[in-house]
Amino acid sequence: MATQTADDDRRDDGLDQHRTGSFRYDVPSETWHWSPGIFHIYGFEPGDVVPTTDLMRRHVHPEDTDLAFSIGDRALRSGESFSSHFRIVDNEQRVREVIAVGHSVLGDEGGVTALEGHVVDITDAEATLVQEQVTLAVDDFRDHRAVIEQAKGVLVQLFSIDPDTAFLALARMSQARNVKVRYLAEELVEAAGRDATPTKGAGSEITDVLARLT
């Protein structure tokens, strides 16, 4: 990958920069552009390093290398949206759990010219979020587990993600919209039953799909 000074002018509007960051990978120049938030997730200050594919690969947890890069590689070939849940080892040797979600940018001739998206550090938030959901809705999950599992399956198929990431997406959107997970799950399953969800690779992100259901 070519080396280029990172674009530090990108901002994570309304988001905690130490937990969330935006990125862009330009295919023709093979360069990455990180917002300050991604530098922080990796344990750096903006300008400490130049983001490259090799740098990112070195910081992926050894057991998650294939998982972290396979979906992005497929998006470069196919132009589909992507989402992946994996671990990194930051500059201070701390293991962090992150979710990367994004989409392909197509050029005039239809080829992929860039990848754009966000990375969210869920190391601390995931356990807390799941525990809150279980504590507040034990009966809800027990009585409506089937439809929630179906909804997770829909997201797994649409975005090539794992079930845990699918559940986290549902739970986060339920909190953001103040809608119970089971209601969101029912809407998603119903929409999938009438082919009202976007087809795989249509350019929509998980949050876009779930937001349209509420």
Automatic annotation (TrEMBL):
It catalyses: ATP + protein L-histidine = ADP + protein N-phospho-L-histidine. Residues 128-189 form the ANTAR domain. It is an enzyme of class 2 (transferase). Residues 1-22 are annotated as: Disordered. InterPro entries: ANTAR, PAS, PAS-like_dom_sf, PAS_fold_3, Sensor_kinase/Photoreceptor, WH-like_DNA-bd_sf. Keywords: Kinase, Phosphoprotein, Transferase. SMART domains: ANTAR. Its EC number is 2.7.13.3. One of its GO terms (molecular function) is RNA binding. Residues 7-19 have a biased composition (Basic and acidic residues). Residues 23-79 form the PAS domain. PANTHER family: PAC DOMAIN-CONTAINING PROTEIN (PTHR43304:SF1), PHYTOCHROME-LIKE PROTEIN CPH1 (PTHR43304). This is histidine kinase. It comes from Nocardioides guangzhouensis.
